[in-house]
Write a structure and sequence with these properties.
Length: 405
């Protein structure tokens, strides 16, 4: 019996949305669910003791970063990522594939997994340059076998292949691991997206074979394949069909999109994937994105923005995002979000936390991050309830009417 299974509890008519239960060796995840990002075996600024109160059902850690520091052997000796960070719930680890993007094409660029409407491929990114190649820690070179890269910490040279990525993830011990993939820049043209997609498919086969060969890990860890193809619909559909034909336990939707056509692409991708297996949207999870993803059949999400925004005073509220350090909140004595029931909103005012930011007190970013994590975890819980109750579309429309992007 596979260590990962997925049970659909209820589907919402006219959409691909569904409520389900993702079963893992370290517990169940009630879906749809927001998976908090614990890049280096920590959700930045948040103690694992707080996870339960904040609604954290599962986390996703970063293979590349944990490989560099402290090293997968130390994490393995500690009993895996979960025990290492004192978290007994479900854990995912990514493959390190996103670093191919961020250390190569995307290094030092203001790029994300979404393509801004006004940005063109010509002026957005340089895929390779002598300047980048000559700088330590700023180089990733992709070939058919894998990727060679220099550490952003000390400039040392390293090599990831599908087999090596799986070996590291086996040592990290997560419940769900991911096949090694190449995540392209959203500005990459069709020809390069196809080349990267084909390479990702070959790496998926090798990743899956490497995982299945290890009987012990095959019995204790599930593996997801990743759909690529960028913002091009034909490539996404082709990739989904190819990855679906492989014996993965679930699927990640990776890479880059135009935010304006993500729904159309996700809907078509998920129609190609086996209905009975879980689907995860990698690195995308703003409130408006979650509604789009759920409607298109996504079960779990992850995103760094709750804590990244929190560290700079960006706060999620039912009325949209606010920037707490702004002068308008200096004397605002209401909670961060008057409709929120997290411990931060129950106990602290906007004025107080705004003061913490202006005074450069570390508690400010901590409280803001905790609220943001709770907000997204609770939002997906409310979406799940609306699916079970048959009121998803009404809840979506009501929420998005008030939420100002």
């Amino acid at each position: 019996m596979r260590p990962i299974s997925f049970q659909i509890e209820k589907e919402f008519p006219g959409t691909l949305a569904r409520a389900g239960i993702l079963k893992t060796p370290h517990g169940d995840i009630q879906t749809p669910a927001f998976i908090s990002v614990a890049t280096k075996a920590t959700i930045k600024g948040v103690s694992s003791e707080q996870f339960s109160d904040l609604g954290v059902q599962g986390i996703i850690a970063n293979t590349y970063h944990l490989y560099l520091v402290p090293g997968e052997k130390i994490v393995e000796k500690a009993g895996g990522v979960g025990k290492f960070m004192h978290f007994d719930g479900p854990v995912m680890t990514d493959s390190g594939g996103f670093q191919v993007f961020s250390l190569g094409a995307g290094f030092g660029k203001k790029l994300s997994k979404f393509l801004p409407e006004q940005e063109s491929a010509e002026d957005a990114v340089s895929i390779w340059s002598e300047e980048v190649a000559s700088q330590h820690g700023k180089l990733a070179i992709v070939d058919e076998e894998g990727v060679s890269f220099t550490s952003h910490l000390d400039g040392s040279l390293h090599r990831f292949t599908p087999e090596r990525s799986i070996e590291i993830q086996h040592a990290l011990g997560a419940d769900i691991i991911y096949a090694f993939d190449e995540c392209t820049a959203p500005t990459a043209d069709h020809a390069y997206q196809k080349e990267a997609m084909d390479r990702t498919h070959e790496w998926a086969k090798r990743s899956l074979a490497a995982h299945r060969r290890n009987i012990e890990k095959n019995n204790s860890q599930g593996i997801y394949g990743i759909v690529q193809g960028g913002r091009f619909e034909d490539l996404r559909i082709k990739s989904a069909r190819e990855i679906a034909s492989m014996d993965f336990d679930g699927f990640g939707i990776g890479g880059s999109f135009s935010k304006f056509d993500i729904l159309g692409i996700l809907d078509k991708v998920n129609r190609e994937l086996p209905k009975e297996k879980p689907r995860h949207l990698l690195g995308i999870g703003e409130p408006e994105d979650i509604f789009i993803g759920v409607e298109a059949g996504i079960d779990t999400f992850d995103c760094v923005l709750p804590t990244r925004n929190g560290r700079t005073g960006g706060i999620y509220t039912e009325q949209g995002k606010i920037q707490l350090p702004n002068a308008e909140y200096k004397e605002d004595l209401q909670p961060l979000d008057p409709q929120c029931t997290c411990h931060v909103c129950k106990n602290f005012s906007r004025a107080y936390i705004s003061h913490l930011f202006r005074a450069k007190e570390m508690l400010g970013p901590i409280l803001a991050s905790e609220h943001n994590i709770y907000f997204l975890a609770n939002l997906t819980k409310r979406i799940r309830n609306s699916l079970l109750e048959g009121t998803f579309l009404q809840f979506r429309d009501t929420f998005l009417h008030s939420y100002k992007v």
